């Protein structure tokens, strides 16, 4: 599907959308003013006025073309206003994850030399207050929400966003011509944003993405995926991540879709029923949780309920695979008995989900497909703006991330001798090609300009042929890319066997007893695992069994509980090769979270942190196990 307006820069995207929808009352964004209030829509005329007034404020505060401005905020309308105003006057958006501690915010602000700092809540303003004196380039902090702590407002460098907008509205007539001239001067090769990689090791690096990088990705995605003016997207993944930025924000606007902001990640289930979106961007963790809730409900039900559920799954899968005739009639009954309830929980209007950020376990994707809730899985990196490949609606192959995007070339480089065994482009695309496994490389207009102030890291990432080295291992299967794991995650056991933990971990994600699992076994004679139980399922079991315990630590060490996990490990490991089988495990009493440091803001496991933090458990496994 073509975009609803033509554009070569993000500046033109905004301007042409504002012109197209002027006077039409077309909704651009929607937000909830309060948790118990209905969604409040914001039309394009209001957006255009707000963006121009904020642009005037930015100019008044000395923001020049090429200056960096930082945003520390959850997804909300104000975030979009700051971004669009920056694109209008040639500023560069530097966005930070709200989960970052003050010290990491300080590093990014110093490294980017950001001039202004927009923050959302009082919690984020407190971080800004803590580090302001150590960030020499920051001249002013603008808070979206009025903080509970009044003393912050007494600081001369703090403004409220509402006051900034009023000031900008007054200043706008004087700088209107300057805004027009600046917007005309913005070129596709100009920097649009610095996105700092969350990374699982080392200091974050600022990925320099130009207007051309992002615009090429938007247009390519629209050639494969239909996003139109009747669509509504629920936005909750962090906008400082390139997946949500490109796919859930710019690509939605380019299709004329409405963007509804979730109140928070915790309220997504509630907000889906209120917003009734047609498209939702998510990471696999959401689908895993929904799947486990559904299967848990079935497990706790009667034998008849289980049989109906298993029958409905079988019918749904056959229908998804293209079978019709009698299956069509059975699918209608399966929907009525099982799947319609699940669809109602998503708002009842979902056309498709998009999954990115990590691998989606094939069994979970297949379940949703059978339910009639299609999931388009894609793949890419922040450094590729981010999309390199994606499945298309009606042609989803679970276990793959689909075909290469138009304009992009993806190559497979053999790990042993660095030879490129194949390179597929999005234009001339064979569907039958299979390849051996190797590192995934990417070339195209979506590949970043480089890392901010870090030429060494840039040259390590992009070779002399222009190929960006992803660090991921994969292969083409029938012309669709299949991801194995990260090269650096590869485990070499004591026998010299190379083992990728990702597919093993994905296998266990369908267990109702397991919330998170990390495979360990570097230079060891066998594989083992650290397991975070599904605590809700475990506590329900303990209640049913009349078990008494003083803490979670006591509960997970109960022999009956240990037996459950021994059985799960044994059952699931049957599907693995001998050297991949999990032979032993230890249960962990705390969930891996962003706040506690074991997960990145995009919910990827920081393996080194987990192995360091729970090194005593790993040592106990291999020193005391009888395996």
Automatic annotation (TrEMBL):
Keywords (A to Z) from UniProt: ATP-binding, Ligase, Nucleotide-binding
Matches recorded under Gene3D superfamilies: N-terminal domain of ligase-like
Pfam families hit by this protein: AMP-binding (PF00501), AMP-binding_C_3 (PF23562)
Start and end residues of each AMP-dependent synthetase/ligase domain: 25-452
Database matches in InterPro entries: AMP-binding (IPR020459), AMP-binding_CS (IPR020845), AMP-dep_synth/lig_dom (IPR000873), ANL_N_sf (IPR042099)
Signal peptide segment: none
Listed CDD domains: VL_LC_FACS_like (cd05907)
Molecular function GO labels: ligase activity
Protein name as annotated: Long-chain fatty acid--CoA ligase
Naturally occurring in which organism (per UniProt): Fodinibius salicampi
């Amino acid at each position: 599907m073509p975009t609803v307006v033509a554009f070569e820069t993000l500046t033109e995207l905004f301007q042409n959308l504002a012109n197209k929808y002027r006077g039409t009352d077309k909704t651009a964004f929607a937000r909830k003013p309060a948790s118990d209030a209905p969604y409040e829509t914001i039309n394009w005329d209001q957006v255009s006025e707000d963006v121009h007034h904020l642009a005037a404020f930015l100019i008044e505060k000395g923001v020049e073309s090429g200056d960096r401005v930082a945003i520390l905020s959850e997804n909300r309308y104000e975030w979009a206003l700051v971004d669009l105003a920056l694109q209008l006057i040639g500023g560069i958006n530097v966005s930070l994850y709200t989960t970052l501690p003050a010290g990491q915010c300080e590093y990014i602000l110093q490294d980017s030399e950001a001039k202004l700092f927009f923050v959302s809540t009082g919690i984020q303003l407190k971080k800004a207050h803590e580090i302001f004196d150590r960030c020499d380039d920051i001249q002013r902090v603008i808070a979206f929400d009025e903080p509970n702590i009044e003393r912050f407002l007494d600081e001369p460098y703090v403004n409220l966003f509402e006051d900034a907008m009023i000031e900008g509205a007054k200043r706008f007539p004087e700088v209107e011509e300057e805004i027009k001239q600046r917007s005309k001067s913005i070129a596709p090769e100009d920097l649009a944003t610095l996105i700092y990689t969350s990374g699982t090791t080392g200091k974050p690096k600022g990925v320099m993405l130009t207007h051309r990088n992002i615009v090429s990705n938007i247009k390519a995605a629209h050639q494969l995926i239909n996003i139109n003016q009747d669509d509504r997207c629920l936005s909750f993944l962090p906008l400082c991540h390139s997946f949500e930025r490109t796919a859930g924000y710019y690509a939605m606007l380019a299709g004329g879709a409405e963007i509804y902001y979730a109140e928070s990640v915790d309220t997504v289930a509630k907000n889906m029923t209120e917003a009734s979106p047609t498209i939702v961007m998510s990471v696999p963790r959401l689908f895993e949780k929904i799947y486990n809730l559904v299967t848990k409900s079935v497990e706790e039900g009667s034998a008849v309920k289980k049989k109906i559920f298993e029958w409905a799954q079988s019918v749904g899968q056959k229908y998804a695979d293209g079978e019709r005739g009698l299956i069509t009639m059975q699918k209608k009954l399966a929907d009525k008995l099982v799947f319609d309830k699940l669809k109602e929980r998503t708002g009842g209007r979902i056309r498709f989900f998009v999954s990115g950020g990590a691998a989606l376990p094939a069994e979970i994707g297949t379940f949703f497909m059978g339910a009639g809730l299609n999931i388009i899985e894609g793949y890419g990196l922040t450094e590729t703006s981010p999309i390199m490949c994606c499945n298309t609606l009606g042609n989803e192959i679970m276990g793959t991330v689909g075909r290469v995007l138009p304009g992009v070339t993806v190559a497979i480089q053999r790990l042993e001798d660095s030879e490129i065994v194949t390179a597929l482009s999005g234009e001339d695309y064979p569907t039958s090609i299979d390849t051996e496994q190797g590192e995934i490389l990417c070339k195209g207009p979506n590949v970043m300009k480089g890392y901010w102030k870090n030429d060494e890291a840039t040259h390590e990432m992009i070779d002399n042929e222009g190929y960006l080295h992803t660090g991921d291992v994969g292969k083409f299967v029938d012309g669709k890319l299949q991801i194995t794991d990260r090269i650096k995650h590869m485990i070499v056991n004591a026998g010299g066997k190379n083992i990728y933990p990702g597919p093993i971990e994905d296998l266990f994600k369908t267990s109702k007893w397991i919330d998170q699992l990390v495979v360990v076994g570097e230079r060891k004679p066998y594989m083992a695992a650290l397991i975070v139980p599904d605590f809700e399922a475990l506590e329900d079991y303990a209640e049913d069994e009349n078990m008494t315990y003083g803490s979670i630590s006591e509960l997970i060490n109960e022999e009956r509980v240990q037996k459950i996990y021994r059985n799960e490990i044994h059952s699931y490991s049957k599907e693995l090769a001998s050297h991949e089988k999990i032979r032993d495990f230890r249960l962990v009493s705390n969930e891996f979270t962003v706040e506690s440091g074991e997960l990145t803001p995009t919910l990827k496991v920081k393996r080194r942190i987990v192995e360091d933090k729970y090194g005593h458990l790993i040592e106990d496994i291999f020193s005391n196990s009888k395996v």
